[in-house]
Amino acid sequence: MATTATPTDTAIDVRDLVVERGGRRVLDGVSCAVGRGTVTGLLGPSGSGKTTLMRAVVGVQTIRAGRVTVLGRPAGSPALRRTVGYLTQAPSVYADLTVRENARYFAALHGRGRAEADRAVADVGLADAAGQLVATLSGGQRSRASLACVLVGRPELVVLDEPTVGQDPVLRAELWTRFHAMAAEGTTLLVSSHVMDEAARCDRLLLVREGRLVADDTPAAVRARTGTDDLEEAFLRLIRASEDHPPDRRAPHPQRPDDTRAAQRRRPGREETS
To answer: What integer pLDDT is reported at residue 74 of this predicted model?
Structure first.
């Protein structure tokens, strides 16, 4: 079931998105909407198109067709640079600076103070490692250092590509608590994961499989639709159902309002003559 958010409460609006790379269709007509102030999980196996969809939302992905609107503007618009935060899978921090120095550097770029930078470091559980060079950190710690640098700017929309990979269960729980606290304050979060037990922590779920959107609903609705309380089993059932009834690639895209009005002007009996 598709999201029915109105334009004023929609942070991300994706319509008929098609992305091709290397002659292969990576996203095939994806449409979805993400409401403001929510935590939306983007789930699917590796290679399903999750990162490509996130890159399209951030505005760094070349698209073949469709449109992506973010906070009321076309994705990638210069005005969005200070309102959208993006955490990539690979850590995006300076290895020759300490965690604190990285956070304070990015804070300064956003006009934030040192206290806010130090708070962001503490929020991701790195207060004890604040004075360490990033080069000496573990992979999970580097990911959290990158997350601190994303959060310090207080973006309206935060796009997180598998932020909990490599984190222990306690830290994962703490990060999800932090994500929901941000959402309660009005921040919108789009979080990708291939860990199915994290699906239950989201307000809404987008399940992607082989470049297509298989599900767009709340965890409760996904459970009800599939007849199981186990979300992992629910996703398997949705995937099997999509494989049994694949969409017709030859079917035309749904008409947009402008197309509908044009069609009405060309009703039978009022055909235009050449």
So the answer is: 98
